[in-house]
Amino acid sequence: GAVVSQHPSWVICKSGTSVKIECRSLDFQATTMFWYRQFPKQSLMLMATSNEGSKATYEQGVEKDKFLINHASLTLSTLTVTSAHPEDSSFYICSAQIPGWGEQFFGPGTRLTVL
Amino acid sequence: SQKIEQNSEALNIQEGKTATLTCNYTNYSPAYLQWYRQDPGRGPVFLLLIRENEKEKRKERLKVTFDTTLKQSLFHITASQPADSATYLCALAFSGGYNKLIFGAGTRLAVHP
What we know:
Chain A is an all-beta fold.
């Protein structure tokens, strides 16, 4: 149980285009999902907290107009990287939390490469 | 400033030995601390959670201690196996809000046959 999927697992796009990444909780409902970014050999950096039916809460330094987050249902959150640039190339990982549980369940990640 | 520090260098041990990984933090008061395992190119996998009022937690070959005075957690893997080779992340969590996690950079463990 407690499986989280992400799609796509990897994507290559041209500079200036937008990319959407989906995060789904497959066997539970997640009122809260989280989006992280991880650069090689670095820690996971929390980008934003996504709550179903409300606006996402972004961490300091994360541009909300560039990283659009939508949490339309209890099992789906999406992250759209708008006008992507090469410096946005990274490993993007989502996680979901079962209400009342402490641990987070992570998706397998999405490798984004912007040319 | 707030920091979470884990051994930055890889830990190399022999199969069968106990691996001990350290997580130190400053200027945080977490409600609980978690340990995750991450394999290359994959998302983290939850291992153990320990609360601020708990000293020790065990799960099979894993043991975690939490000293809020020293602001330190130790993560032990006994009878280590090559399959335990991975990066291990500690994460701090705080009460209130949405229980977001703050991660350390992780320690790479390599268990040699």
